[in-house]
Structures are given as C-alpha cells and as structure tokens.
Amino acid sequence: MPLENGQESQEYVAFQEHDLKGYRLEKQDAPWLITVLIIGAVALFIVVTQGWESGREGNRLFVPLYFMPDTTNIAIDILMSFAVITALMERAVEVFIGSTRAIRRKLTTRHLEALNSLLEDRQNSYDAAKASGDSKAQSMESALLALKDRRNRVYHRLTSYRTGTRIRALSFSLLFGTLIALAGVRVISPLLDVPYAALSNIQWAALQIVDIAGTAGLIAGGTNGIHRLISNLGARTEPENPSELEVRTRPS
User: In this structure, is residue 13 part of a structural domain?
Assistant: First the structure.
C-alpha cells in the first residue's frame, strides 16, 4: 500500500538509530598501508645488511642464473604447496578481519535495503499523486529527491567500508606473506640453479629481495590466482621434440 507523504515504514524507523557515521577511506586505511610499507622497508633493510655481511665476494658483480631442469613440474609442485599456505592465510584473514567488520557491514546493508524499500513505496505514491493531479505531488517530489540522496550516501558509505575491508585484508596478507618468506619459504629460488658461492653481496641481497617480494605477492594474491597459474601450467602441451623441454643449466 502506498505511503502518504511524511509517513515512514517501521523498518526504516528501526534502522534510523543505526545511521552510521561517514566513513573516510583515506583517514582510516592510510595507517594500514603505511604500517605495511614500514615493515616491508625494515625487512628489506635487514635482508640487504645481512646479505652484505654474510654474502661471499665473487669475481663478477652479477653472474647469470639458469632455471632448473623440468621447471614446469617443479613450479606446479611449489604452487600446490603455496595453495595450502594461502588457504590457511585466507582463513586467518576471515577470522581476524572479516569477523570484526561483518556487523557494521550487515547493519549498513540492511539500512540500505530499508531505504530502497521505502524509496520504492514513496516513488509509487508520487507517481499516483502526479497522475491524479494531487496538489501534494510537488512536496512529495522534494521528499523523494531527499530520500534518494540519502540512499546514495548510504550506498557510498557501504562501498567505502567494503573497500576498507579489502585494503585491511590485503595489508594483513602482505604482512603474513612477508613473514613466511623471511622464515625461509620461497617461490623463486627453488626454480633456479643458484651458485651461491659465486654470488656477490649485491646479487645475493637482490635475489633475496626479489624472492621475498614474489613470495609475499603470491600469497597475498589468494588461492584463486594460484589455481589459475596451476591450470595454465598444467594445460601446456608437451612439444613433439622432447629436447625442447630441456632448460639451459649453468655452465661449469
């Protein structure tokens, strides 16, 4: 039944008390990103300094690195292991971040649904009044526009809140992935035939930085990305000439 001008549904009134304060993404989420950047910078500094102290001096500043034989199968095995680690990480993100922010998101979602329901009723009332030439149509139009504006603000607030949740989840994932990489779980080094004794200090440190960043990024990307990589690698057809599978190895 259409609502008269000024009348509000009980559902909408029930959610007015939950009208949330404006959510400003740039103020609330910037500290998360800054914290992750600081931790990452400290981790990279530690890697560089430790590499400079413990790396061995080589005759060349950079030596070429070659992939291990049968790199594709090795990569698939590594990715499958990382899929398990990433699944555990995603569960941790769901527990620590998702559960703490779910209540506010649900309240805002229900608030938006109530506004949409009320807006539909008001729109029907306005259309009926306008069609019948009711003198209240003009005032009802103003109230309808105000209600649409409020609905849009709540929708923007919900979108910003969801974006903030994603940023927090990504920050946690990057931190978690960096700690795992610092613990020694890597994704790039196992694919390479690395002559560690011949590496200079700078190349050793650069390899560690790239390996840590790649590992952290892979874990932060989630299981869906890893599954796509596994599918793409597994879908590769073997060449007719078996010698094409051979990968160059480091010359002695």
Answer: no
